[in-house]
């Protein structure tokens, strides 16, 4: 398999045209076609794309090994990833793995750019390959859920969460996207997500939460306004940023349990 | 200030024509006496209605709407949610395009209400409805639902209440360390009120004076927590943050002070208006002004009821003991001059 266009030819021009016409949702990387709402029907495509990616990434590393840094086009690595539909399949279904893929791509690129030993670049390559297979597994699992009707359709517009527990889940998801954007080398976009999430989501629940656990709100306030923005600003590693986010998500789970209980005890309106 | 006149001018009987006689009589009595109506006195809501709901108190408004739905099974309530400012812009843009999708608009910010009202899109409300609201909160084309008051939360370990001036303007010349959240919408409404009351020059000087002694926070709950931790002596924040903090932490070292008759104790309000004709939008608004909904939002969200006869949230002095300034809340819609001023003095 030499080019992605050949892969896509197997699915035919008709699909490509239909996907363009059906596209509604806009993600960070353009319009989402209907394939994300029919994962099972596209698993063969995704599998071929993963194999294609592994070949392409391996090709760059092979070039680095045989012909050195100048000959290896490390900038092309991100382009390969952006080209595949699988990109959106994992982005819309499991953002943490999506972030890990970006982290792996930049792991290879930075190792090549700084002239690291081939063995170190190969380690990054192997790690990325594992992540890609994991991602394919995650999409296959999501396809099963989708087939059973357990997976919400990817919407064409953003839905506002209507309850506090739903808002906290939304915050956790947005924090996953912070890691993804940071792994994608877009720290300003990541910082904007943190800021917007605080003002548009956390602000709406922290009043109720502070009645339940003032110390927890203080902790999360600091995380949103100091710890996480500083980690993004000081060029922390993706793993460090992910650690901050994971710690916040644990606190948000605690917050959710508190608010669910408080909601049960709340008086009725009428 | 644009108040009271409509209530005085309209005959209640004429405005109640669309309601059953007994309900109309009950509402008319409530309107005259200025008392809250019980939900039991309201007609059932039936039919299709679309509400544009500005993002608010993280789920409590949703609880109210869900309760209204459950009580009115023949009501088909569609809700579009978003930021209050964005929805106000949408309503105006839709009207310009000759489209009306929203029947009612419930906004957390009266400034956004003003924007829609100024565009000539809001219906007149019946006198018996506006008559239920407290004096000073009666507007012909929109109904304030609940209020929030600007306060000066202060650290009780660092300041005694008598040390705090009763003029917010005097704080710029004080030695206090002050917490504020200048990027926060409520703070910007407060500065807008100050501009309207004191003028741009005085407000600009005040901002410069406060800036010299201020510590910035991202939001106003952060301000209150900073005050409580003793990072600053006092701050600027809406009342409910302090009440909620004290509810979760009764021994918190923070209490509320109020200025007197200036922007520092501005009472702002969430509000609702009707965009389409017919009884249903008006009767929907009546549900939000019932004793039950007003009490719920007071006890659960610490918001200030604006209907007569419903108790204020615990920990807040009665509204009639506070002297808020006379500002037409809908004039707070135009934030641009405020933002320009804040930028020009280096606050934003």
Characterize the structure shown:
The complex is a heterodimer of chains A (270) and B (348). With 270 residues, chain A is an all-alpha fold. Chain A has two domains: 4-147, no CATH class; 164-265, Four Helix Bundle (Hemerythrin (Met), subunit A), CATH 1.20.120. In chain A, 74% of the residues lie in helices and 1% in strands. Chain A contains eleven helices and two strands, in the order H-H-E-E-H-H-H-H-H-H-H-H-H. A two-stranded antiparallel ribbon of chain A has the order 1-2. In chain A, strand 1 (26-27) and strand 2 form a beta hairpin. In chain A, helix 3 (43-67) packs antiparallel against helix 4 and helix 10 (214-233) runs antiparallel to helix 11. The longest helix of chain A has 30 residues, at 118-147. Residues 5-31 of chain A have low confidence and may be disordered. Chain B is an alpha/beta fold and 348 residues long. Chain B folds into two domains: 5-147 and 269-318, 3-Layer(aba) Sandwich (D-Maltodextrin-Binding Protein, domain 2), CATH 3.40.190; 148-265 and 333-344, Periplasmic binding protein-like II (D-Maltodextrin-Binding Protein, domain 2). Helix content of chain B is 39%, strand content 16%. Chain B contains 14 helices and eleven strands. Chain B has helices spanning 5-9, 12-15, 21-33, 60-71, 84-96, 110-118, 127-130, 185-198, 200-211, 220-229, 239-248, 279-288, 291-301, 336-344, and strands at 47-54, 75-82, 104-107, 143-155, 178-180, 214-216, 234-235, 237-238, 254-257, 267-274, 304-305. In chain B, helix 5 (84-96) packs parallel to helix 6 and helix 8 packs across helix 9 (200-211).
| Element string of chain A (H = helix, E = strand) | HHEEHHHHHHHHH
The backbone outline of chain B, from C-alpha atoms, is globular
- Order of SSEs of chain B: HHHEHEHEHHEEHHEHEEHEEHHEH
Report the β-strand fraction of chain A as a percent range: under 5%
Rg of chain B is: 20 Å
Strand content of chain B: 15-25%
| Count of domain modules of chain A | 2
The whole-number mean of residue pLDDT values of chain B reads: 87
Distance between the termini of chain A: 65 Å
Q: Write out the strand line-up for the largest beta sheet of chain A, numbering strands in chain order.
A: 1-2
Spatial shape of chain A: flat
The low-confidence runs of chain B, each spanning 5 or more residues with pLDDT under 50, are 1-25
Sheet with the most strands, sense and barrel status of chain B: 8 strands, mixed
Count of alpha and pi helical runs of chain B: 14
The whole-number mean of residue pLDDT values of chain A reads 85
What does the main sheet of chain A amount to? Answer: 2 strands, antiparallel
Classified by CATH, the class of the largest domain in chain B is Alpha Beta
Helix content of chain A: over 70%
Tally of helical segments of chain A: 11
Largest interface chains and counts: A-B, 30 and 37 residues
């Amino acid at each position: 398999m030499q080019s992605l266009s050949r892969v896509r030819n197997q699915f035919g021009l008709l699909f490509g045209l239909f996907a363009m016409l059906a596209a509604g949702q806009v993600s960070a990387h353009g319009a989402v076609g209907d394939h994300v709402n029919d994962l099972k029907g596209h698993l063969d495509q995704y599998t071929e794309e993963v194999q294609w990616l592994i070949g392409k990434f391996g090709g760059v590393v092979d070039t680095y090994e045989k012909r050195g840094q100048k000959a290896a086009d490390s900038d092309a690595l991100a382009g390969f990833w952006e080209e595949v539909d699988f990109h959106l399949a994992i982005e819309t279904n499991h953002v943490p793995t999506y972030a890990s893929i970006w982290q792996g791509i930049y792991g290879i690129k930075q190792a090549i750019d700084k002239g690291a030993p081939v063995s170190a670049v190969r380690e990054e390559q192997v790690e990325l390959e594992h992540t890609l297979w994991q991602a394919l597994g995650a999409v296959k699992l999501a396809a099963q859920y989708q087939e059973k009707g357990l997976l919400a359709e990817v919407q064409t517009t953003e839905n506002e969460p209507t309850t506090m527990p739903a808002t906290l889940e939304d915050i956790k998801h947005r924090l996953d996207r912070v890691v993804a954007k940071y792994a994608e080398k877009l720290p300003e976009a990541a910082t904007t997500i943190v800021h917007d999430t605080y003002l548009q989501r956390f602000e709406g629940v922290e009043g109720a939460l502070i009645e339940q656990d003032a110390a927890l709100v203080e902790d999360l306030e600091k995380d949103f306004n100091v710890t996480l923005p500083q980690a993004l600003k000081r060029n922390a590693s993706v793993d460090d940023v992910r650690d901050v986010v994971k710690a916040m998500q644990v606190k948000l789970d605690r917050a959710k349990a508190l608010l669910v209980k408080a909601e049960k005890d709340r008086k009725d309106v009428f | 200030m644009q108040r009271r006149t409509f209530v005085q001018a309209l005959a209640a009987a004429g405005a109640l024509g669309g309601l059953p006689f007994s309900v109309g009589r009950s509402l008319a009595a409530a309107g005259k006496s200025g008392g809250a109506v019980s939900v039991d006195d309201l007609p059932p809501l039936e039919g299709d209605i679309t509400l544009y709901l500005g993002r608010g108190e993280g789920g409590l408004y949703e609880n109210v709407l869900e309760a209204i739905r459950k009580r009115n099974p023949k009501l088909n309530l569609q809700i579009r949610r978003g930021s209050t400012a964005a929805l106000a812009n949408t309503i105006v843009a839709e009207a310009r395009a000759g489209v009306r999708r929203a029947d009612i608009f419930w906004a957390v910010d009266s400034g956004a209400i003003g924007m829609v009202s100024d565009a000539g899109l809001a219906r007149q409300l019946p006198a018996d409805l506006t008559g239920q609201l407290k004096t000073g909160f009666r507007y012909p084309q929109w109904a304030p639902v609940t209020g929030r008051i600007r306060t000066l939360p202060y650290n009780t370990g660092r300041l005694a209440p008598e040390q705090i001036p009763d003029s917010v303007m005097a704080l710029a010349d004080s030695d206090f360390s002050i917490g504020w959240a200048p990027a926060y919408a409520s703070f910007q409404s407060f500065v807008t009120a100050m501009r309207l009351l004191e003028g741009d020059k005085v407000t600009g000087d005040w901002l410069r004076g406060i800036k010299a002694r201020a510590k910035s926070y991202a939001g106003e709950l952060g301000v209150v927590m900073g005050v409580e931790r003793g990072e600053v002596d006092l701050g600027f924040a809406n009342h409910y943050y302090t009440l909620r903090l004290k509810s979760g932490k009764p021994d918190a070292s923070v209490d509320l002070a109020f200025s007197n008759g200036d922007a520092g104790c501005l009472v702002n309000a969430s509000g609702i208006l009707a965009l389409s004709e017919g009884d249903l939008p008006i009767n929907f608004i009546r549900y939000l002004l019932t004793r039950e909904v007003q009490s719920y939002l007071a006890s659960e969200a610490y918001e200030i009821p604006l209907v007569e006869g419903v108790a204020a949230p615990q920990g807040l002095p009665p509204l009639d003991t506070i002297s808020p300034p006379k500002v037409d809340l809908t004039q707070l819609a135009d934030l641009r001059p405020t933002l320009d001023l804040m930028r020009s003095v280096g606050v934003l």
